[in-house]
């Protein structure tokens, strides 16, 4: 539940920054207040603010320049019609997916070599819960996220786990109403099973093949949303 709250804070802060840009009628190249000033303006911690800034930068709404400050990008990119918002989120998700292919792909590779019996049992229990929720037509977004976190943990590399956790707010956008559709990636469910089956028996080649099928499916679904 704490993770859900974190995502909500990050999204709320990013929306407040966008509201500020519009209310102040800022233009491309205009400078936003400093991180310190915005933490006081919005009443949030530095970590929540920085997560919101990373999100907005990934969406091409702002640009953070080290040593200079935070600047507005082309204001025409966020006049908030529904169509523009969808396109912004689509670009953001595709950019994040590129990072997932690299980092999570490495986690799958390592997990296929290092997964323990206890971790196998944990993931089997996770998939059992996933199946029950799916069959009942209930929201599977959080159990899906839990599955991927289990795989990352099974990689047995605390540095990789820390790196993935450092952009968790961006990563979790895949599991929190992506493009306004909680069921957008339901078609990836079979790949969770086939990928895990390969990881469980330490078949690295098959695990990677199933992982890339999953990523390709996600990419196709993102590009297919109108």
From TrEMBL:
<dbReference type="InterPro" id="IPR008920">
    <property type="entry name" value="TF_FadR/GntR_C"/>
</dbReference>
<dbReference type="GO" id="GO:0003677">
    <property type="term" value="F:DNA binding"/>
</dbReference>
<keyword id="KW-0804">Transcription</keyword>
<feature type="domain" description="HTH gntR-type">
    <location>
        <begin position="7"/>
        <end position="75"/>
    </location>
</feature>
<dbReference type="InterPro" id="IPR036388">
    <property type="entry name" value="WH-like_DNA-bd_sf"/>
</dbReference>
<dbReference type="InterPro" id="IPR000524">
    <property type="entry name" value="Tscrpt_reg_HTH_GntR"/>
</dbReference>
<dbReference type="Pfam" id="PF07729">
    <property type="entry name" value="FCD"/>
</dbReference>
<dbReference type="InterPro" id="IPR036390">
    <property type="entry name" value="WH_DNA-bd_sf"/>
</dbReference>
<dbReference type="GO" id="GO:0003700">
    <property type="term" value="F:DNA-binding transcription factor activity"/>
</dbReference>
<dbReference type="InterPro" id="IPR011711">
    <property type="entry name" value="GntR_C"/>
</dbReference>
<dbReference type="Pfam" id="PF00392">
    <property type="entry name" value="GntR"/>
</dbReference>
<keyword id="KW-0238">DNA-binding</keyword>
<keyword id="KW-0805">Transcription regulation</keyword>
<protein>
    <submittedName>
        <fullName>FadR family transcriptional regulator</fullName>
    </submittedName>
</protein>
